[in-house]
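2024-03-11 09:14:02 DEBUG pipeline.ingest accepted 1 chain
2024-03-11 09:14:02 DEBUG pipeline.ingest length=766
2024-03-11 09:14:03 DEBUG pipeline.predict start
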Amino acid sequence: MKNVIYFLWMVVIFAGCSQTVNNQIETDIDWQSFLADKDLLWDRAPFKWSQGAFVGNGLIGAMVYADSSGGLKWDMGRSDLFDHQGNDDDGNLNTRLPVGSFQLEGLSFDDFSMRQDLYNAEVTGQTLFSEDELAFQSFASYQHNVMVIDLEAKDSELPGLTWHPLPSYPMRKKLRDFVSPELTLADVTNPDPIQKTKGNIHLSIQPLNAGGEVVVAWVYKDLTKSKRSCYITITYSFPERTAEQEAVDILKKAVQADPQEMVKAHRDWWHAFYTESFVSIPDKQLETFYWIQMYKLASTTRSDRPAIDNSGIWYNNGPWSTYHWNMEIQMNYWPVYTANRLHLGKSLCKLFDSNMDNLIENVPQKYRYNSATIARTTSANLKGSIYRMTHNPGDAPEYANLLWACHNYWLQYRYSMDDGLLRDGLYPLLKRAVNFYLHVLIRDENGEYHTPLATSPEAGSAKDCNYDLAALRWACQTLIKSAERLNIDDPLLPQWRDVLQNLTDFPQDKDGYMMGKGVKAPQGHRHWSHLFMIYPYHVVNRNQPENQENIRKSLDYWDVNLAPVAFGYSGAASMYAALGDGDKAYFKLREILNEYPNARVQDHYSRICENTFNLFEVNEYSVLEGTLGIANAMQEMLLQSWGDVIRIFPAVPRDWQDVAFHDFRAEGAFLVSAVKKDGVTQFVRIKSLAGEPCKIITDLKEPVSVLGQSENILSQTGIGQYQFDLAKGEEVVLYHGEIPDLTITPVDTDDTYPHYYGLNKEQELK
């Protein structure tokens, strides 16, 4: 029946069809045990930031590690602390501010242990103090904006925590003095903090030169003779100075709360978070890495908290101390969508919604009536001119960054199918972003549109950059689809169609897609901006026979001697997955996990460290996008849904004979579960959350049977290709042969050393 379209009627109808499939699918997951195997363990003290344990509640957080002087420190951070001394057109002074650390001092690390408990989102451990065993426990409360540090000793008097504030200056100015050369570090360093107490509350008040203040406040609460809690908060206000009173109010409320209820509320939130989706693969190192990234995501943002910038909560004074819009921010959010954790993605959408006026002001005044754009880097207000924010003097602007950022907004919509989100948020934003492009497009004598001289991120400048052409083509297609969806007769529709029809082709040569007109593609370069038509836009994809050869040729050319930077490797893995090449995608991920931190690490190149953060070697400056990109690539090996088609197990490597995932989310607002055993797909379950048309591609053996409501009639449209209609809330299970065991369980493994991260003996045996 190859290449013949035919219909396959439902062949199995069960007695009691009114019973939903939800009653048939079961999960048998001991979440606490499953995640405990993935906890980060330390049997010695970590003396580097890159080796520490980390906690966060989406606003404040800490990295926990040791100091060689005998102190155990909680390196504190708050994700929305930005200095405001700079010119918004430059942005370089409007960067993140360091805070400082709390330290337990006078410790001995001869007998030290620590555990990062993923399931409970806590760090626990013990060490020696005055020859006595000192136990500590720490978490960032879900319910209150406080960091809790519990201390317990058997015989000794409990130690106090000492506060060590860091000098408060915009770090970007210190490292790259290209804003105002006449300024010195002293000119931009904020005043020393003011130390004071208010009752039993200790306060460190950091005035800011530009107005406002940062306050670190803490209070002790003795629970028993041998157990004490310290509640810490970080508050921030700008331009008013109201943070001090806010800190006092937060701590008073926390102290009055029942400690057990606080712990319970915190754990309940995290336990529910983990169950939003499930995945298990036979590679336990990669599986462990994935779940640590899920923990990292929920630690660094929430729906009502700041969007994730380059460093998240755990800013460690690096030069990437802002929002970077040509790679990092978009990648940070990619794992959110398939993982069915759209509530985390809301923080990015809200960032755009609340700063639309500033995005409009970023364009020249003559275009502000209908346009908006964004610079390469901004603070949280999104202000910055694309004409000044460049890597080097003389660089052309990066025009396409806001279009790419809108792609994340589009994913938030597509995975939710919330038409209100499209109508009120994305559509007006994307329309303005495209309008700015329409003002700068160049039309030649043949009627063909070209993009102006522009920068392809981190690669160079050219006319007709593929970075720009891919973004503009995707954006015009998306605006047309959106207008149709919303029944909007937009007067710009003819212009968008005209641009699509007459936009110049992607420049290419014998090695595939070029960087731009007359400029060859970079080889081995970490950024694949010239290949965005392949991924993430899928404007050019493997479903187009005429493009398949060029896609592979372009990817293979770029991948030669790929710079050892995690986001490049994870991007390559995602592109190979989009081609259906699971073995090559897996190879790229194994290269990341196996070769870092030892192989080919040079100067500024990044590595994966003991606590799974992606670090640049210079002074261990952290970024997040590479590690979160790894989680995203792993998801795309198991489920893809671009182009209105759900692909189940599209790029599973041969080594993964057993795989299971549950409640992964697909575009069109579908929840998908599937199990593969001994290399054979056992069943696929699909639940519709919005009643959208459903098309799938699966490797289930034929004929395929359906378990579900009787009105669901499955149509086969090709080999392994099916379509059917599901009402909102309706679900089906597809399978072959006898009804399989419809239970989702973790995949078995022979790995007897589960704890891959932290610093422990088990890790050394791997």
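2024-03-11 09:14:41 DEBUG pipeline.report The first helix runs from residue 31 to 36.
2024-03-11 09:14:41 DEBUG pipeline.predict end
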